[in-house]
Automatic annotation (TrEMBL):
Keywords of the record: Sigma factor, Transcription, Transcription regulation
UniProt GO molecular function: DNA binding; sigma factor activity
Record domain RNA polymerase sigma factor 70 region 4 type: where: 122-173
Similarity comment: family membership: Belongs to the sigma-70 factor family. ECF subfamily.
Name of the molecule in the record: Sigma-70 family RNA polymerase sigma factor
Length: 184
């Protein structure tokens, strides 16, 4: 039965994939939640797991579907946890950024803050050419490339404090010259 379901999904059957999701959604959620320990993050990660399952089903080799799905879920949850820990470390290194962005300090950021940051990144990318040359690189590296202050300082062979100052000045320029309605 499982093999037939997998073959149907591989052949592009949306219905078969919905059946697979229904069959394993609780198991995937419990697996992911056991690692992330946050309901909202586990819900988001569970959806991402099913996207990964769909895109990598061609690699499935009939070794037990539930076992394979569990492995995909565990690996994805661990990746999510590592990313959150890295973000947390960067925020700890840069308390100015944390306070300025209004991000909660409890490790994982709220969905709203993540959405706002993604939107800001998209808007900045669109308007990057308008920035003075002195601000463009630091804004690009931080918002588009998502580099840490430390990484940027290493690349530019300057102190972290210099990067903080450059970003502060670039943000001031953006606040002064760009109005919120410009981004709509």
């Amino acid at each position: 039965m499982e093999q037939a379901l997998v073959e149907k999904v591989k052949n592009g059957s949306d219905h078969a994939f919905r059946v697979l999701i229904e069959k394993y959604k609780h198991h995937v959620f419990k697996t992911v939640y056991s690692i992330l320990r946050n309901q909202k993050d586990a819900e988001d990660a569970s959806q991402e797991v099913f996207v990964k399952i769909y895109t990598s089903l061609s690699q499935y080799e009939n070794q037990g579907l539930k076992t394979w799905i569990t492995r995909v879920a565990v690996n994805h949850a661990i990746d999510c946890k590592r990313k959150a820990a890295r973000r947390h470390e960067e925020m700890e290194e840069n308390p100015e950024y944390t306070a300025e962005a209004g991000i909660r300090r409890e490790g994982l950021r709220s969905v709203e803050a993540m959405f706002e940051e993604k939107q800001l990144r998209l808007l900045v990318r669109r308007r990057l050419g308008e920035l003075p040359e002195s601000h463009r690189k630091v804004i690009y590296d931080y918002y588009i490339e998502e580099k840490s202050y430390k990484k940027m300082a290493e690349e530019q062979q300057v102190e972290v404090k210099t990067i903080e100052t450059k970003l502060y000045r670039a943000r001031l320029w953006m606040r002064k010259h760009w109005k919120e309605e410009d981004f709509r």
